[in-house]
What we know:
Elements: H1 2-11, H2 14-48, E1 60-62, E2 65-67, H3 69-101, E3 111-113, E4 120-122
Amino acid sequence: MKGLGGFRSFILRGNVVDLAVGIVIGAAFTGVVNGFVKAFLTPVVGLATGAVGDFTDKSFTLGGTDFPYGSFINAAISFVLVAVALYFLVVAPMNKLHERFAPHQDVQAAKRDCPACLSAVPAAARRCAFCTTDLTPAAAPDARPADPRPRQRA
Protein backbone atom coordinates (compact mmCIF):
# COMPACT_ATOMS: atom_id res chain seq x y z
CA MET A 1 0.00 0.00 0.00
CA LYS A 2 3.06 2.26 -0.06
CA GLY A 3 2.42 3.12 -3.71
CA LEU A 4 -1.02 4.49 -2.90
CA GLY A 5 0.45 7.04 -0.50
CA GLY A 6 2.73 8.36 -3.23
CA PHE A 7 -0.17 8.49 -5.66
CA ARG A 8 -2.30 10.34 -3.12
CA SER A 9 0.42 12.93 -2.52
CA PHE A 10 0.85 13.34 -6.30
CA ILE A 11 -2.88 13.88 -6.85
CA LEU A 12 -3.23 16.30 -3.93
CA ARG A 13 -0.35 18.49 -5.05
CA GLY A 14 -1.50 21.98 -5.94
CA ASN A 15 -0.40 21.83 -9.57
CA VAL A 16 -2.38 18.69 -10.40
CA VAL A 17 -5.57 19.95 -8.77
CA ASP A 18 -5.21 23.35 -10.46
CA LEU A 19 -4.69 21.65 -13.82
CA ALA A 20 -7.77 19.47 -13.36
CA VAL A 21 -9.91 22.47 -12.42
CA GLY A 22 -8.55 24.40 -15.41
CA ILE A 23 -9.40 21.57 -17.81
CA VAL A 24 -12.96 21.27 -16.50
CA ILE A 25 -13.53 25.03 -16.66
CA GLY A 26 -11.96 25.13 -20.12
CA ALA A 27 -14.31 22.41 -21.37
CA ALA A 28 -17.33 24.27 -19.98
CA PHE A 29 -16.09 27.54 -21.46
CA THR A 30 -15.61 25.88 -24.85
CA GLY A 31 -19.22 24.72 -24.77
CA VAL A 32 -20.40 28.25 -24.00
CA VAL A 33 -18.27 29.74 -26.78
CA ASN A 34 -19.41 27.11 -29.29
CA GLY A 35 -23.03 27.86 -28.41
CA PHE A 36 -22.40 31.59 -28.80
CA VAL A 37 -20.72 31.07 -32.18
CA LYS A 38 -23.51 28.82 -33.42
CA ALA A 39 -26.33 31.06 -32.18
CA PHE A 40 -24.95 34.52 -32.96
CA LEU A 41 -21.70 34.74 -34.91
CA THR A 42 -22.32 32.14 -37.59
CA PRO A 43 -25.59 33.77 -38.68
CA VAL A 44 -23.90 37.20 -38.76
CA VAL A 45 -21.00 35.87 -40.85
CA GLY A 46 -23.48 34.05 -43.08
CA LEU A 47 -25.51 37.23 -43.61
CA ALA A 48 -22.36 39.24 -44.32
CA THR A 49 -21.30 36.76 -47.01
CA GLY A 50 -24.75 36.48 -48.59
CA ALA A 51 -25.57 33.04 -47.23
CA VAL A 52 -28.72 32.29 -45.26
CA GLY A 53 -26.85 32.69 -41.99
CA ASP A 54 -25.87 29.13 -41.08
CA PHE A 55 -22.65 27.52 -42.30
CA THR A 56 -23.16 24.19 -40.56
CA ASP A 57 -24.75 22.45 -43.55
CA LYS A 58 -22.66 24.12 -46.24
CA SER A 59 -20.53 21.82 -48.36
CA PHE A 60 -19.33 21.24 -51.87
CA THR A 61 -18.87 18.05 -53.84
CA LEU A 62 -15.75 17.25 -55.80
CA GLY A 63 -15.37 13.96 -57.61
CA GLY A 64 -18.25 12.41 -55.70
CA THR A 65 -16.75 13.34 -52.32
CA ASP A 66 -18.58 15.72 -49.99
CA PHE A 67 -16.49 18.49 -48.33
CA PRO A 68 -18.40 20.06 -45.39
CA TYR A 69 -16.59 23.40 -45.16
CA GLY A 70 -19.33 24.93 -43.00
CA SER A 71 -18.34 22.86 -39.98
CA PHE A 72 -14.74 23.94 -40.46
CA ILE A 73 -15.73 27.62 -40.57
CA ASN A 74 -17.71 27.18 -37.34
CA ALA A 75 -14.75 25.45 -35.68
CA ALA A 76 -12.32 28.14 -36.88
CA ILE A 77 -14.55 30.92 -35.53
CA SER A 78 -14.85 29.06 -32.21
CA PHE A 79 -11.09 28.63 -31.98
CA VAL A 80 -10.37 32.29 -32.66
CA LEU A 81 -13.01 33.35 -30.14
CA VAL A 82 -11.63 31.06 -27.43
CA ALA A 83 -8.08 32.26 -28.10
CA VAL A 84 -9.08 35.94 -27.96
CA ALA A 85 -11.16 35.43 -24.81
CA LEU A 86 -8.37 33.53 -23.05
CA TYR A 87 -5.84 36.17 -23.99
CA PHE A 88 -7.88 39.16 -22.85
CA LEU A 89 -9.52 37.51 -19.83
CA VAL A 90 -6.61 35.43 -18.48
CA VAL A 91 -3.19 36.08 -20.05
CA ALA A 92 -3.21 39.90 -20.21
CA PRO A 93 -4.51 40.39 -16.63
CA MET A 94 -2.03 37.83 -15.28
CA ASN A 95 0.84 39.60 -17.06
CA LYS A 96 -0.23 42.93 -15.55
CA LEU A 97 -0.45 41.39 -12.07
CA HIS A 98 2.93 39.75 -12.50
CA GLU A 99 4.53 43.04 -13.58
CA ARG A 100 2.90 44.88 -10.68
CA PHE A 101 3.93 42.46 -7.93
CA ALA A 102 7.14 41.01 -9.37
CA PRO A 103 8.88 43.72 -11.40
CA HIS A 104 11.76 42.80 -13.65
CA GLN A 105 15.09 42.89 -11.90
CA ASP A 106 17.77 42.62 -14.54
CA VAL A 107 20.38 44.40 -12.44
CA GLN A 108 23.55 42.36 -12.52
CA ALA A 109 26.24 42.62 -9.87
CA ALA A 110 29.58 43.95 -11.07
CA LYS A 111 31.85 41.09 -12.14
CA ARG A 112 35.59 40.57 -12.44
CA ASP A 113 37.76 37.68 -13.55
CA CYS A 114 39.40 35.33 -11.08
CA PRO A 115 43.18 35.60 -11.57
CA ALA A 116 43.63 31.82 -11.17
CA CYS A 117 40.89 30.30 -13.33
CA LEU A 118 39.63 33.38 -15.23
CA SER A 119 36.00 32.68 -14.31
CA ALA A 120 33.65 35.61 -13.84
CA VAL A 121 32.96 36.20 -10.14
CA PRO A 122 31.18 39.06 -8.33
CA ALA A 123 33.49 42.03 -7.77
CA ALA A 124 32.95 41.93 -3.98
CA ALA A 125 33.75 38.21 -3.70
CA ARG A 126 36.48 37.11 -1.28
CA ARG A 127 36.80 33.60 -2.71
CA CYS A 128 36.30 32.25 -6.22
CA ALA A 129 33.25 29.99 -6.41
CA PHE A 130 34.89 27.89 -9.14
CA CYS A 131 38.44 27.24 -7.94
CA THR A 132 38.17 28.52 -4.31
CA THR A 133 41.15 30.86 -4.68
CA ASP A 134 41.24 33.64 -2.08
CA LEU A 135 40.53 36.98 -3.73
CA THR A 136 41.05 40.50 -2.56
CA PRO A 137 37.69 42.24 -2.90
CA ALA A 138 37.65 45.07 -5.41
CA ALA A 139 36.66 48.33 -3.80
CA ALA A 140 33.34 49.47 -5.18
CA PRO A 141 32.44 53.17 -4.85
CA ASP A 142 29.53 52.48 -2.50
CA ALA A 143 30.90 49.35 -0.83
CA ARG A 144 32.29 49.11 2.69
CA PRO A 145 36.02 48.63 2.98
CA ALA A 146 37.06 45.01 3.35
CA ASP A 147 37.61 43.71 6.88
CA PRO A 148 41.41 43.31 7.24
CA ARG A 149 41.03 40.54 9.86
CA PRO A 150 41.15 36.97 8.54
CA ARG A 151 37.83 35.14 8.65
CA GLN A 152 37.43 32.36 11.20
CA ARG A 153 36.25 29.01 9.92
CA ALA A 154 33.63 27.18 11.93
